[in-house]
């Protein structure tokens, strides 16, 4: 995750990783660089690691390439965990405060999953459902009906009644053809059977690399922690760059709004598709720049706004140190057109 960046930009990378280790009180940088993967993949390590590497790449842009985010970025947003990086980039949270929040939040999330698994004997995680774009709204309605959100159950006929599926929620609405379910994997399977037999839908299901039911009521304890923790840190508002909330799909409106929505994000649906549509349709955003160790966020944005006619528009990504110089040059050369 970090080794290529450390090798390419050792001084700046070392500064960020040293700050990370000092803030957390242990050498997470060694786990990132040397593993083992079983330790790195634990929620309490992987989440602060991913957030820190995203900020590391931003710092490299700022220090090594003189990329001034305050003057060149109009708005920030981040998917799920990425919301913390977006708040750091926008100037709302200090890096150290965000790291501490993410680390403890992740520890509590892992504890919630462990306790839930022991109590129920079930296995938890997340499953993406993919369908044709024209079917997304009807798929969402069908899922909500089966989950008992609108009624305690769904009448099929006089002799059959489909019960509400407990411990399953819609965790993400990611794009015009993808939602993510979170909760008991066994019950998600039951929901899929009912969708196919009675709901008139046959979405493709893909198990995600998560052993926890994120963005569900199972994470209520993490939301409670966040409500208390955000009262004890310094939040800058207004900050230098507007930031979009995962929960509201709109810019944070005030310091209290930020505290409330950032807490609720632990257990509520990530409205990523609504966020992208808001920026694309209402704000007229033409250029999107992803910063982070992976391309998931960039790919989700690209599904909606990847085909932009404006020169220099569309979706760009800083995720490979070997491409930094070329991307910076291309961005600078096309900036006037993208702003037009």
UniProtKB/TrEMBL annotation:
<dbReference type="InterPro" id="IPR050858">
    <property type="entry name" value="Mal-CoA-ACP_Trans/PKS_FabD"/>
</dbReference>
<keyword id="KW-0012">Acyltransferase</keyword>
<dbReference type="InterPro" id="IPR014043">
    <property type="entry name" value="Acyl_transferase_dom"/>
</dbReference>
<keyword id="KW-0808">Transferase</keyword>
<dbReference type="Pfam" id="PF00698">
    <property type="entry name" value="Acyl_transf_1"/>
</dbReference>
<dbReference type="GO" id="GO:0006633">
    <property type="term" value="P:fatty acid biosynthetic process"/>
</dbReference>
<dbReference type="InterPro" id="IPR016036">
    <property type="entry name" value="Malonyl_transacylase_ACP-bd"/>
</dbReference>
<dbReference type="GO" id="GO:0004314">
    <property type="term" value="F:[acyl-carrier-protein] S-malonyltransferase activity"/>
</dbReference>
<dbReference type="GO" id="GO:0016787">
    <property type="term" value="F:hydrolase activity"/>
</dbReference>
<dbReference type="InterPro" id="IPR001227">
    <property type="entry name" value="Ac_transferase_dom_sf"/>
</dbReference>
<dbReference type="GO" id="GO:0005739">
    <property type="term" value="C:mitochondrion"/>
</dbReference>
<keyword id="KW-0378">Hydrolase</keyword>
<protein>
    <recommendedName>
        <fullName>[acyl-carrier-protein] S-malonyltransferase</fullName>
        <ecNumber>2.3.1.39</ecNumber>
    </recommendedName>
</protein>
<feature type="domain" description="Malonyl-CoA:ACP transacylase (MAT)">
    <location>
        <begin position="8"/>
        <end position="324"/>
    </location>
</feature>
<dbReference type="InterPro" id="IPR016035">
    <property type="entry name" value="Acyl_Trfase/lysoPLipase"/>
</dbReference>
């Amino acid at each position: 995750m970090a080794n290529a960046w450390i090798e390419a930009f050792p001084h700046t990378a070392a500064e960020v990783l040293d700050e990370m280790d000092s803030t957390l009180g242990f050498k997470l940088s060694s786990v990132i660089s040397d593993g083992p993967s079983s330790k790195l993949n634990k929620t309490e390590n992987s989440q602060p690691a991913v957030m820190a590497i995203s900020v590391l790449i931003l710092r490299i842009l700022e220090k090594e390439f003189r990329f001034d985010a305050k003057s060149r970025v109009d708005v920030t947003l981040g998917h799920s965990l990425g919301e913390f990086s977006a708040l750091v980039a926008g100037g709302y949270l200090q890096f150290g405060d965000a790291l501490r929040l993410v680390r403890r939040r992740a520890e509590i999330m892992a504890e919630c999953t462990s306790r839930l698994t022991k109590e129920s004997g079930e296995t938890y995680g997340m499953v993406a459902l993919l369908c044709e774009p024209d079917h997304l709204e009807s798929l969402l309605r069908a899922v909500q009906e089966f989950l008992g959100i609108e009624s305690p159950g769904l009448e099929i006929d006089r002799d059959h009644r489909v019960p509400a599926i407990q411990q399953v929620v819609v965790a993400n609405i990611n794009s015009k053809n993808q939602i993510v379910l979170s909760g008991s994997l066994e019950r998600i399977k039951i929901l899929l059977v009912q969708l196919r037999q009675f709901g008139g839908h046959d979405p493709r299901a893909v198990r995600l690399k998560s052993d926890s039911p994120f963005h569900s009521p199972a994470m209520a304890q993490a939301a409670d922690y966040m409500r208390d923790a955000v009262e004890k840190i310094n939040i800058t508002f207004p900050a230098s760059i507007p930031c979009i909330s995962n929960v509201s799909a709109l810019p944070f409106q005030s310091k209290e709004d930020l505290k409330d929505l950032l807490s609720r994000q632990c257990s509520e649906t990530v409205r990523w598709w609504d966020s992208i549509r808001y920026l694309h349709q209402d704000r007229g955003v033409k250029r999107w720049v992803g910063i982070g160790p992976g391309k998931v966020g960039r790919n989700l944005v690209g599904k909606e706004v990847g085909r932009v006619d404006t020169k220099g528009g569309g979706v760009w990504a800083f995720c490979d140190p070997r491409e930094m110089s070329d991307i910076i040059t291309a961005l600078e050369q096309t900036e006037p057109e993208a702003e037009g």
